[in-house]
Each structure stands twice: as structure tokens, then as C-alpha cells.
Amino acid sequence: MKNSKRIFLVIGLALSIILLVGCGKQSKAASETGTVTIGSHTSDLQIWEHIAKSPQAKKLNLKIKTKVISDGAQLNAATSDGQVDVNAFQSYSYFEAYNKQNPKGKLAALGTTYLEPMGIYSKKYKKINDIPDGTTFAIPNDPANTSRALKLLESAGLVTLKKSFNAFSDMKDIKSNPKNLKFKEIDDGTGPRVLNDVPVVLIGNSIALAGGLHVLQDSIYHEKIDQSTKVNVNVLATAQKNKNNPTFKKLVELYHDKEIQKYISKKYYGTKVDVNKSISYLNK
Fold this sequence. Notes:
The chain is of the alpha/beta class. The chain has two domains: 34-116 and 231-283, Periplasmic binding protein-like II (D-Maltodextrin-Binding Protein, domain 2, 3-Layer(aba) Sandwich), CATH 3.40.190; 119-223, D-Maltodextrin-Binding Protein, domain 2, CATH 3.40.190.10. The protein has twelve helices and 14 strands. It has helices at residues 2-33, 42-52, 55-59, 72-80, 92-101, 143-155, 191-194, 205-210, 215-218, 246-255, 258-267, 279-283, and strands at 35-40, 63-68, 86-91, 107-112, 114-115, 119-121, 136-140, 160-161, 174-176, 182-186, 200-203, 221-222, 234-239, 273-274. The longest helix has 32 residues, at 2-33. Mean pLDDT is 88; it is low at 1-33. It is a lipid-anchor. This is Lipoprotein.
């Protein structure tokens, strides 16, 4: 019996060593071949699926795999613990708020990608000033877009937000609502359909495009591309320990390649505005 236990112990130790060596070789191989797993969803996923097959990626010796994770917090957590190497989905404000709430799993921003304006849409009103008191506004119910929508309403002069407002804030962080607007939370992807039932709807650009809407042409008000909206610029993010990884940094260069940008501009009708800035630009 004792001999049997010893045999099983030896076998277990041997298997552990083999697995550790195997994992080490696998990680080394991934680094040497430039394999990167990018976590994303919706239009960002489509972009990186295209980039992964592009001759530009091949030229930079980058082998890219994509992984779908639709929840932002889960995607950031997966990036922090190494299930995903880099993620492409979030604005800089969401990134900062996540890091603040998760000090032990902080991420690092590798570089900027784009800004696409969020818009206020209505089939009933043609201008913001036409909207009467007590009007119902439909707002997306996921944290990133809820806070962004409220910031847009503040920019339009419809509400005032608390000083403590951040990327995870919601309706309870409205300081004043002089027009007594009513709010209806909706699933993010239903915005275009809800336009038939709710007087005013706030919709992110990816969802708007999927619903046949062009933010620069069809919205009655949208984010302007200036210093006040720079926190809404999207970034590529990775785990803190990988912030200086040369392979991951190549992804920023790849995204801003001229041919890649031509594809993005054509596919999304110019609504994903290229922002090729250093991360320090976002902190100014």
C-alpha cells in the first residue's frame, strides 16, 4: 500500500513538471511567433477579425486570434488574469474607472484607436430645444454607455451631473433635472427599434449603424470631437505586466495602418474617427 502511494506521488510530480515545462514552452512559442489573443465584441470584434487576416498583420509577423466576451467588466478581468492578451472595446474613461475599482487587477493602455460619437435620436423632435418638459428618454442600461449617455445629456444642456460622476455612474448621480425628464433603461442593442415607441433615444454608434442610422446625419445632437470628449476615445488595453510588451505594442501601429484605416472608414461610413495619439494626450 505504501509503495503504491509512493508510485502515485512520483507519477503526480512527474506530470506536474511536464505540465509546467509544457506551459513554459507554449508561452515562449506564443511570444516568439507573435500570437496575440484579442478580446472584443460587436464592431470592434469585426475590425480585429479583419485585421487578423490582413497582409499588414502578416508583414508585422503578428498572428492574431479573437475571443468574444460581451461584458466589459468580465473582459477586463479576463485581460488582467491572462485569459486575453489585449482587449479592444472600451473608452479611456471606462478604462480609468475600472482600474480605480480594481486596484489589484489594473490594466495598462497600449494606445488609442478611435472615437465614434454617441447620438441623441428622435422621430418626434428635430432639435434639442424642441423637446418639452417631462419627455421620456431611453438610455442604454450597460454601465459604460449609461454614464456616457448622461454626459451627453449634460453637454446638450438638459441635466447637470454631480462632481463625483464617473464612467460607472448612473441616474442617481444626476444633480439637477430642470426639465423633469423621465428615463427608461433599455438593452443596448434595442435602441433603433425603441425609436418607434419612445420620444427620444440615446444610441451608441455601433448599435446605430447596425440599425441603419448614421450619427453624423440622423441624430438631433451628438458628441463633438474635441477636448471635452477625449475621455471617450477608445484604447487597446492589456495587463499591467505587459505594458511594455513589444509584440502587443505592434497592435497599435497595425490599427493605424493606412490600408486598415481605409477599410474601417469605408465599412463604418467615417463614423469611427481615427485617433492616433499617445496615452499622455488623454491625461492632459
